[in-house]
User: Fold this.
Amino acid sequence: MPVYLPGPDEVLLTRPSAEEAEAIAVGVAAAAAPAGGLTDLQRVLLEAVITALTDHPVDLSHAGPVTPAEFAQLMRLRSLDFRTRCVQLMVLAALIVRPLPEEVADRIEAFAAALGVEEGMVAVAHEFACGCLGLAAVDFQRNGYTHDWAPADRHELHTSQELADAWDLAVHDPDLAEQWAALEALPQGTIGRGVWQLYTARGFVYPGLPGSAPPLLAQHDWVHVLADYGTTVEAELEVFSLIARANDDMRAFSLMAMVVSLFETGYLRQAAGLFESDVGHLSAGAGKDMAVRVADAMTRGAWCHDNETGEDSIDFLRIDWFDLADRPVDEVRERFSLRPRSELAVSAGSTTAWERGGISPFQVRCGREAAARAGRSYDAFGAEVAGGS
Assistant:
């Protein structure tokens, strides 16, 4: 039986204390741990994320058992959103285990029920555990971020035609491509000019042309520039962690679940109309550095606030970026209260798009080929492949 939600006069809205942070960590670990205990990657990720989000260090090296009912009692004064975030951490920790034991998925479902939480990605975790990968891919769409997409939801994407699916391509839209190409004319230091440089250095194709990414997915390229992230697969994990956590619509968590399932375990073979599975990027180097980077990205997203609208919830994939294209990057960061990357994340390898480690060998090759076709010299704007170009 679920523990009822607190009333408006008793709900606890303050940030967790050190004691509560530890209790959350232990409870999340109890829900997500396989029979032999947390995997090393689960432990370092949960410790990094909960420490970063609460500002209280947690240690799961000797975490004990917690039942769903006990954890729900601990969360009895917390709101539905807070409880849902806890369940999402359980799911996140489960999705980085392959194979995912069915008993883990069952246990997370029991924790969610005790908390009174309905989280669509719990069903996805069940399907992964059962080996129903095709059904899980469908449920990402049905229960996730694009659940309520309508063909008319294209205003911010500037496509000439309605898109039947959120991740539809638009490869015959010259007006859209022209709008993207016009970013070259913007002054240095503007966010639009930064996006043009990002595309030019990597040979990315403008939305509207054959070979381009879906317009909705292309929205996240602005976040690479805004948030100072490179374009390697590891940086994609950072970008989507920030995007997912900045949005108070709980379905946005599916975006983070998507990239973890693509780029760590490979539960998804493809997603978002372009991304393809490429496993092992979260666990690279024993996972500690990437855990720190993902945790920092989530924290940056959590602290975002739109100083023009007053909103705490920001959907970075639904912003009309062309309205902001001529603004200096620093001004746009200030609008969204976007904190700089932490020193800890930078030390763990987090890079911008304009330095060593901020670009992949494939992207350099594509950028060089695009420059040759256009009859111009190649310029990576400072980006270099890690370990040499």
